[in-house]
Recover the amino acids of this structure.
């Protein structure tokens, strides 16, 4: 069987690079999963084989992320974007506080406002979303329904870099940094993450929900948007994204075998250092977007002296098999997304390319 030998350096912000051993395993199991004579894509979600896959995936997530037993796992469709609405429909009773450190937090606020009262306790817009605040120093609503944060803002490359230690029920969008380092689930009432950056293919959104939150779910919600219905039906009220769930399980098993999230964090720190060193060593030719204290290890936006040089940089990088380096239009410049599965060799190749490009164009 032909196995692709050429792997491009894919700096995409998502869907992003997947671990090669996971892709190879999925390839090996594609036509016949575990002697069933079927692909995972062909199985009944209620059959014995997929039940086993679902259990293995749940176990792998719990094991990798040390999910306490009083938290439920859900694998839902509609991406992290649907969670903006769903969490508000289920939990926005009275007023909820939101801290907005970038574009995705803004989306969460917009969706929340449709469902109820939203208090934006902090918003980084004035500084073009280049930093995250100290959450313990902000003013919040008394008895807020929850506090919503986005750990890592994918577009701006701004990360809190630590778990919140807040008395409120914190609901957190962890889409672009989940499983990139150890995190303490017990610090959150709910964590959610679209899979397509660090966990698997798009189409699955992982939700980790503290079970007492279910007592707050109002009656009368549309079934698909009701966490209680989703939990009571073992996230199979309707047909779940079976293949994505299977892939997500393989990805988690891969990182468990790698040594767990402590090891993953060390790897990611080393990778990001290579790129940030190239930025910091450029004498201002490359300028980082985020302040030092909130630099994301997953998404590294940086600018060049002009739009012309930016375009030239992106197209010359592409010619050297480094793709998707163009920054989001709202920030401009470039962005290197280096999720868990992105190899350090790619970071080194980018850093070398950055030095060479500056020497020729600086
Ligand atoms: N939150 C963050 C932090 C994201 O990066 C993204 C996607 N880039 C989303 C939410 C939206 O995710 P989805 O496309 O799965 O709806």
């Amino acid at each position: 069987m032909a196995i692709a030998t050429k792997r491009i350096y894919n700096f995409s912000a998502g869907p992003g690079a997947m671990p090669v051993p996971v892709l190879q395993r999925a390839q090996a199991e594609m036509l016949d999963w575990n002697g069933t004579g079927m692909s995972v894509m062909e199985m009944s979600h209620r059959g014995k084989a997929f039940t086993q896959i679902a259990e293995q995936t749940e176990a792998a997530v719990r094991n990798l992320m040390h999910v306490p037993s009083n938290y439920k796992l859900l694998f839902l469709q509609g991406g992290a974007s649907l969670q903006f609405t769903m969490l508000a429909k289920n939990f926005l009773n009275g007023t909820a506080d939101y801290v907005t450190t970038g574009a995705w937090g803004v989306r969460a606020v917009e969706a929340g406002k449709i469902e109820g009262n939203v208090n934006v306790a902090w918003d980084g817009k004035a500084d073009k979303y280049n930093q995250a605040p100290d959450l313990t120093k902000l003013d919040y609503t008394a008895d807020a329904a929850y506090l919503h944060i986005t750990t890592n803002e994918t577009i701006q490359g701004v990360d809190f870099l630590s778990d919140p230690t807040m008395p409120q029920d914190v609901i957190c969008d962890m889409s672009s940094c989940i499983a990139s380092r150890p995190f303490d689930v017990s610090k959150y009432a709910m964590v959610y993450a679209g899979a397509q950056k660090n966990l698997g293919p798009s189409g699955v959104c992982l939700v980790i929900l503290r079970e007492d939150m279910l007592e707050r779910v109002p009656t009368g919600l549309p079934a698909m948007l009701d966490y209680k219905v989703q939990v009571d039906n073992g996230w199979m009220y309707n047909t779940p994204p079976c293949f994505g769930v299977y892939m997500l399980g393989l990805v988690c098993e891969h990182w468990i075998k790698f040594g767990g999230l402590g090891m993953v964090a060390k790897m990611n720190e080393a990778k990001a250092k290579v790129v940030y060193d190239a930025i910091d060593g450029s004498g201002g030719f490359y300028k980082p977007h985020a302040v030092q204290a909130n630099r994301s290890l997953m998404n590294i936006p940086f600018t060049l002296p002009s739009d012309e040089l930016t375009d030239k940089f992106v197209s010359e990088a592409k010619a050297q098999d480094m793709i998707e380096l163009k920054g989001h239009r709202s920030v401009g410049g470039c962005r290197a997304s280096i999720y868990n599965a992105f190899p350090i060799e790619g970071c080194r190749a980018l850093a070398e390319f950055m030095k060479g490009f500056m020497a020729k164009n600086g």
User: Anything to note?
Assistant: The chain is about 35% helix and 15% strand.
